[in-house]
Each structure stands twice: as structure tokens, then as C-alpha cells.
Amino acid sequence: MKLVKITKKTADKSRPSARTYDDACGAAHALDLIGERWALLVMRELMFGPKRFSDLRADLPGISANVLTQRLERLEGIGALSRRKLPPPAASHVYELTPWGYEIEPVLGVLGRWAARSPLHDPTLPLSAASLMLSFKTMFDARKAEGLNARIGFRIGDETFLVQIHGGACDAARQALEGADVVFAGPARAIAAAVYGGAPLEALEAEKALWVEGDRALAERFTGLFPLPPKA
Questions:
Q1: What average pLDDT does the chain have?
Q2: pTM for this structure?
Q3: How far apart are CA 34 and CA 37, in angstroms?
Q4: Which DSSP letter does residue 60 get?
Q5: How confident is the model at residue 150 (pLDDT cuts 50, 70, 90)?
């Protein structure tokens, strides 16, 4: 049996950051860039603006500090995100997507809708605020929202988001709640239970899992605007 000499270059390819499919396909190159475990989810968590390292760890409870550091360094190295220091009094570092990094959003939407059809998908697993907001943009049914113009606020932990429905479109942003017609307050999982799980708002409020402030009829209508696709 002929032995193959392992050169330094060959050994380098064994490292996770050096793996490559050696394939000219754009999809293959995309996986070369962000195919490592957690990389795409780190980008998901930054989709609504910059976050500190500690915030990212809190939103991705299954990731270790070491792996998060590696993924952030890798994503910065390929130009998908940048790191900057906040001015005093904060004086802490935050990570944010570059303009090119933000272009991954449609991919997250298509991937999420495709995976929602899987019979193996477990919607009871932990859910981050960013994931929930992206799901609204992905699952929105414009036909069910015909004629609706509304501003829906969400208070999830220390973050606030505003979902705007106008002209048959749905957009979400991390921002203050001034002008919201109705506000949902509670963990992302409870809000998802109302929107995707069919849990009555009254039952969630009775359990103190969710609070609804403002236009009650609008809140009820909102929960019906995001039908899940049929299982494959």
C-alpha cells in the first residue's frame, strides 16, 4: 500500500476553518463560508442589529464561549460581520453584520419555510426573539392581512421590536414601541404558542406567560396571519 506524504498544506485542510468542498458551485462555496455549526445562527441573531458577545451567548444557549469566539472570528474574517467598540459610558464591543452579511436574510427565510414542512421539526424547542421576528416575515400571508395597516409591538426580555403591516407587506425591526397599536409582552416561546400553536391569548395570560396591551381585536387577528405550510 502506497503511503501518501502529508504536507503542511494537507494538514491545514483538516482544520474546520480550512475545510473546502473544492467545488465551483456557489452553494458549495456558501457552505465553505458559513457551513460550520452555529455560523448561520450567529448571523440570524445579528439580523436586527449589533449585539454584545454576552447577548449572543444568551440568545444561543447551546453554544460555548470558545465556539462562539471561533465563529465570530471566522465570520469577521470572511467579511460577513465587523466588530466595533461602543463609545463611553458603554465602552464594550459589539458585533454587527456588514451590508453583505445582511444579504443572507432571504436565505434564512427560504430555509426556515422549507424546514417548517419537516415532520421532525419540534416547535417546542427554545426560540430566540430574532428567530421569532424573522419567522413573521417568512410566514406572513398577505391575503389574510388584506386591508390591514397596523403597528404591532413586542417586548421580549430586554428587547423591543415593532412589526409593521402595510400594503400587504410585513416588516420587523428592533426599535422603540412608540405608536404601537397593540403590544405583546413575554418570552418568544409564548408568543409563538399563540401565533403558531393556536394557544388562546386568554389561556396564556391566565398562566402569566404572556401579556397583551392595546387593541385586543387586532391582537387576535394578528395571531392568524402566519399559517404554517403543510408537512411534507
A1: 92
A2: 0.89
A3: 8
A4: S
A5: very high
d(CA 161, CA 155): 7
Which candidate, 174, 107, 166, places its Cα nearest to that of 140? 166
Within 10 Å of residue 28's Cβ, how many Cβ atoms? 14
**Range 67-80 average pLDDT:** 97
Q: Where in the chain is the domain with CATH 3.30.1050.10?
A: 122-222
Of 45, 106, 102, the residue nearest 72 (C-alpha)? 45
What's the CA gap between 84 and 94, in Å, rounded? 6
Strands 150-156 and 182-185: parallel
Q: What is the CATH number of domain 122-222?
A: 3.30.1050.10
User: Which residue has cell 396591551?
Assistant: 213
Q: Cell for 12? A: 491545514
d(CA 216, CA 162): 17
The kind and range of the H/E element at 171 are strand 169-174
| 171 within 8 A of 161, measured Cβ to Cβ | no
Rg of the chain, C-alpha, whole Å: 21
**How many Cβ atoms are within 10 Å of 88's Cβ, its own excluded?**
6
Positions of CATH 1.10.10.10 in the chain: 23-106
CA nearest to 137, candidates 108, 103, 171:
171
Looking at the structure, give the CATH architecture of the domain made up of residues 23-106.
Answer: Orthogonal Bundle (1.10)
Show the cell assigned to 54.
Answer: 454576552
